[in-house]
Amino acid sequence: DNDPDPMPKFNKMNRHGTRCAGEIVMTPNNSFCGVGIA
């Protein structure tokens, strides 16, 4: 959707895919309370 916001709001446009993408790119010790997937 060409939205450059790194922390999108949870709404109809930003649901499953947005959350999955965030988990995939997370790294340990990043101050965002997540470690991603292996």
TrEMBL record:
GO process annotations (BP): peptide hormone processing
Pfam family for this entry, one: Peptidase_S8
Keywords (A to Z) from UniProt: Hydrolase, Protease, Serine protease
One GO MF term attached to the UniProt entry: serine-type endopeptidase activity
GO cellular component: Golgi membrane; trans-Golgi network
Statement: the UniProt record of this protein carries the keyword Transmembrane helix: no
UniProt cross-references to PROSITE patterns, sorted A to Z: SUBTILASE, SUBTILASE_HIS
Domain Peptidase S8/S53 intervals: 2-38
Domain of life: Eukaryota
Family: Belongs to the peptidase S8 family.
PANTHER family, per the entry: FURIN-LIKE PROTEASE 1, ISOFORMS 1_1-X_2, PROPROTEIN CONVERTASE SUBTILISIN/KEXIN-RELATED
Name of protein: Proprotein convertase 1
